[in-house]
Design a protein that fits this description.
The longest helix is centred in the middle third of the chain and has 6 residues, at 89-94. This protein is 10% helix and 41% strand. The strands form four sheets. A six-stranded antiparallel β-barrel has the order 4-5-6-9-8-7. Strands 3-13-10 form a three-stranded antiparallel sheet, with no helix packed on it. It has a two-stranded antiparallel ribbon with strand order 1-2. With 179 residues, it is mainly β. Strand 8 and strand 9 form a beta hairpin. It has four helices and 13 strands.
């Protein structure tokens, strides 16, 4: 294991931070069926965004973008990455678009829906985008609370990584690791 020390990095305090970098990247991924019931409940706040073939990808009509989004409030605030929303050309250009959503529920069933989203703010540098999604009243969601607190060294991520396919669908994946 190699230790890298970073001091005075942009966006970090002046204190020295150290990170362990493993020699080999070993992911510890688990599917919904392999995690505890309390972790399964988190699936209600996570969705897969899928861009539309015809409207979004005018230059490449046979391709589409997708990624993970996290709902932050009952009013429809959702966080995703800039690299995800960058595939949604209408959202980036017009700041509003229709997005197709897929979701795996805690019991393992899937649901899909389409909703209008407004792009409120984004940063390519920090790789985030905040959207306001018009949520259907009949859909049940949970919401992730963002708090400032110490992060790590043990982390869990939850999402729909593009390399985890289940037929034509991307699997909801829990990943565990250390920072």
């Amino acid at each position: 294991v190699t230790t890298i020390r970073i001091s005075k990095a942009a966006g970090l305090s002046a204190a020295t931070h150290s990170f362990l970098v493993p020699e080999e990247d070993k992911s510890n991924r688990k599917s919904l069926s392999d995690v505890d019931d309390n972790l399964k409940k988190l699936a209600l706040g996570v969705v897969q965004l899928r861009s539309r073939h015809d409207a979004e990808n005018l230059l490449s009509p046979n391709s589409s973008g997708s990624g993970t989004g996290y709902f932050l409030s009952a009013s429809g605030l959702m966080m995703t990455n800039h690299h995800v929303i960058d595939d949604f050309k209408t959202c980036v250009q017009d700041l509003v678009c229709d997005i197709d959503f897929n979701q795996v529920l805690p019991d393992g069933t899937r649901r899909s829906f389409t909703a209008k989203a407004s792009l409120l703010v984004f940063s390519q540098q920090y790789d985030f985008a905040l959207l306001k999604v018009t949520l259907h009243k009949d859909l049940n969601f949970s919401f992730f609370k963002i708090e400032k607190q110490k992060i790590g060294p043990q982390l869990m991520t939850l999402g729909y990584p593009g390399d985890m396919q289940d037929g034509n669908d991307t699997r909801l994946t829990y990943s565990f690791g250390n920072l």
